[in-house]
Amino acid sequence: MRVYLPSTLAGLRVLLDDGELGPPPLPAFAVTGALREWYAEGDEEELEYAALTLAARASVRLLDRQLLDDPAAPARRVVVVAEVGRVEPAPEVERAAVRVPDPVPLRLVQAVHVDDPAAEDDVRAAAEQLVEADLGGEDATFVVEQAEGHELQWYAVQEIGPLLELE
Fold first, then answer.
1. 32-52, pLDDT tens digit by residue?
2. What are the residue ranges spanned by the domains of the chain?
3. What does the alpha-carbon distance between residue 36 and residue 52 come to, in Å, rounded to a whole number?
4. CB 119 within 8 A of CB 9
5. CB neighbours of 128 closer than 8 A, spacing ≥ 6?
6. Which 3 state secondary structure label does DSSP give 66?
7. Is residue 99 within 8 Å of residue 25, measured between CB atoms?
8. Cβ(80)–Cβ(112) below 8 Å
């Protein structure tokens, strides 16, 4: 099953250094039955884009935590796309949420999606406002949507190392 795993640039470094994402269970998003029901009119590409978008928002949550520890860390959303053998549904989190019960080795990674550096200011602001947006704050929601307006860039697996060298 194709999954979209939220991550950070630091998480990509761990993926390259350790050869896998872990420890499990790993939060991820996928085209689940519940997502299909909700997007009754959507085709497969639209459903996958919805799962990717949810993973990108979860990446902002990871960045929020990372930026508390290291305010100078690059604020760029990262989503790792992988084909895994099994997942566990997590409908209590979100209709497309799943948990990957095993580490994800680099050989299962299909691609990564990463923000362009030009998105950093908006993504940093979104990380700072995400909780307020979750609580219904209109101004905070607008800030989060600004970050989500940036398209994630697609990178092949062999481009991860060079991408990280630019940081």
1. 988 988 887 778 899 999 999
2. 2-165
3. 14
4. no
5. 64, 67, 143
6. helix
7. yes
8. yes
* CB neighbourhood size of 83 (10 A): 12
| Other CB atoms within 10 Å distance of the CB of residue 22 | 15
Chain mean position to CA 76: 10
C-alpha pair distances (Å), 112 with each of 11, 16, 84, 145, 166: 11, 12, 15, 21, 16
- Name the DSSP letter for residue 159: G
Q: What is the pLDDT of residue 41?
A: 78
Q: Residue 167 above 80 pLDDT?
A: no
Q: Write out the E strands in 18-158.
A: 20-21, 26-29, 78-83, 88-89, 97-100, 104-105, 109-114, 153-156
Q: How many CB atoms lie within 10 A of CB 156?
A: 11
Asked if 98 and 89 count as a contact pair (C-beta separation under 8 A), the reply is: yes
- pLDDT tens digits, one per residue of 89-128: 998 899 999 999 999 999 999 999 999 999 999 999 999 9
Q: How many C-alpha atoms does 29 have within 13 Å on its Cβ side? A: 24
Token pair for 78? 């990262």
The rounded distance, in Å, linking the Cα atoms of 28 and 102 is 12
Q: Which two tokens stand for residue 116?
A: 């362009």
